[in-house]
Each structure stands twice: as C-alpha cells, then as structure tokens.
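W.,

You were right to be curious about this one. When I first looked at the sequence I had no strong expectations either way, so I just let the prediction run and decided to look at it fresh. Below is the sequence, 347 residues in total, followed by the output.
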Amino acid sequence: MTQKHKALFYRQEKEALVCELCAHGCTIKDGRRGLCGVRENRSGILYSLVYGELVAEHIDPIEKKPMFHFLPGSLSYSISTVGCNFHCLHCQNHSISQAVHLSEVEMAGIRRRPEQVVAAALAGGCLSISYTYVEPTVFFEFAYDCCVLARQKGLGNVFVSNGYMSEKAARTLAPVLNAINIDIKAFSDDFYKKICGARLSPVLETVRLMKELGVWVEITTLLIPGLNDGEAELRQIAAFIAGADRAIPWHVTGFHPMHKMIDRPSTPLRTLRRARQIGLDSGLQFVYEGNVPGEGGENTFCPSCLSEIIGRLGFSIRADRMAQSSCPACGTKIAGIWDRADLAAGR
C-alpha cells in the first residue's frame, strides 16, 4: 500500500472531494485520484501519496533552473517526487512527471524527511533548495515543510513551476518562498489545452500574485517552432511581463525534440535572438537566451548604461562585477536577490 499523508486544500462536495491545490479543481470520488495522479480520496479524506518520496535529489547550479537574478554562482539542492498537473507533449522529465500514467508504478521513491533534505543541502554547500523537475505544487505538503525548516536554517527556497497553483496555495507558500521561475508556455488557451492540458489565465494570475506577495519572479518561455514562436505572440508575452514589472527577467529558451513532440525541429538561434529583441523593445530590462551557451545572450547588462555586470557561459559565471547589488559603472540598482544579505532581508 502506498504511503499516505493528509493533504491540504480540499473540501467536501456531496459524495466527492474537491481538490483546491491547483487551478484544475479536480472532483475526486472515493478511491480515485486527481489529474496529477498523486492525490487520492480515501474514505472522505484527501491524501498526498508522495510526501517525502523523492525520485530525484541533485546539487545543481542555480542558473540551471533557470534563475539568473537569485544568488548567482551558487548551488541549489534540487528535489522532486513523481507526478504533475500538466501533461505537456514535450516534457523533458516525462519519465517522472508522467510516471503514474505511463505505467503501473506506484509512488515509491527514496523516503526522506524535511530535516534530511535540509541537512543534505547544507552539507553540499548549497544556498537554497529548489523544488523542481516536475510541478512542485503536486508535492506541496512536503515542499512546504522543507521550506519552513530551510528558512530557519538560512537557506533560500525556489519553486520551478508551471504557475498552475491555486490562489490559496500561493498565499500559503509565499511567506516561506524566496523565488519562483514560472513558465509562460504560450499566450493562447489553444496551446495550453492541446499541448499541456490546461489553461493560460491561471498562470498569468500566479505571476501577478507572486509578484504582489513579494516573491522574486523570473519567467521562462520555451520557443517551439511553429507553435508559440510567432512575433505577435512573443510581443503579447513580453507586454504582459512588462505590465507586471519591467525588471522581471524573461528567459527565452531553445526547444529540442522530446517525448511526444519529435516532429518539430530544434529552435534556431535566430528565433531566440528575435525573441530577446522583442522583449527589450517591449521595455523589459533583462531578457536571456537559453539552451545556447556561449552565444552572449546569457549575460546580465545594466539597463541604464548597458555595461556588462555578469558574464555567463552555460551554467557557469565567468565574470561578476556586481557592486552591492548595483552596477559598478553607474550605480544603478539591479533588481534581484544577489547575496546572503539580500536573502536575509527578503529582498
């Protein structure tokens, strides 16, 4: 029998439970699971089936998330369970995100307690814990308990998310979360429905809410040839981000054929260059090209004087000229969480 841990965020409705963890709002009958496959109604109580069941534990550079304005050059202890509330056709981690749908496997992972995760992060020289690889909202209860303990020990907490969590979950998480990278996968409901099995509007609401709640936000858009890389759509995404905050970094990253989407070519560099320029023309201060190391689109430039502040090569920092969270050339304050002092101050 799969281990169980009582879940948060649900209500009784007639003969079923309504899960309020994410925007799907699954109605779950007794003995059944939600769309994510890892939350189950057992005799009128909703349980998480993946609490502490880790299938991935790695020490990563924070730049891999990608997070470019959060403790650059530091290491992050990255964890994941199985399960996801999206079913993206191009998911690079489908072997764990879709595990409960692709086979008869149960939730088994290596059982961990929050204390063990935090101890491992500290022992590995990490400055943060990242909840990643699948949508971390589906293992919310474990992630939250880790976040609380991590904050007590001086570690940062980072979600790498599709942004589909409920407002209630976001408001509960925000006080113990330092940063979040949210995918805006496209700017059309049609894409979200056909490619991900979701909708666009809840994602946009999470971006706005996390920003409002004081969590550091970065955005990623994977550009898939012929699906979401048109100029009009890129301008819509850029305009939305600029409307939320011009200082939110936007990562436009290259697609490679994966999972059920092997009929598309990889993203050309010229597409990433065009997307980056669209972002800058739309007023965004920081736009980065991803999955093309060494091409120059990974570097951080001062939005005022255009001096290079941080030079990157892939996931490595080759030059860091930041001076007290500011541009050393002109003194402009650069938005982000740059060191332990910023982390402790919650800015």
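Here's what jumped out at me. The mean pLDDT is 94. And, maybe more interesting for your project: Residues 53-290 form a domain with the TIM Barrel fold (CATH 3.20.20.70).

Coffee later to discuss?

I.
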